[in-house]
Amino acid sequence: MLSGIHHVAIICSDYPTSKRFYTDVLGFSVIDENYREARDSYKCDLGLPDGTQIELFSFPGAPARPSRPEAQGLRHLAFRVADLDAVIAHLASHEVECEPVRTDPYTGRRFTFFSDPDDLPLELYER
Question: Which pLDDT does position 2 carry in this prediction?
Answer without folding.
Answer: 67
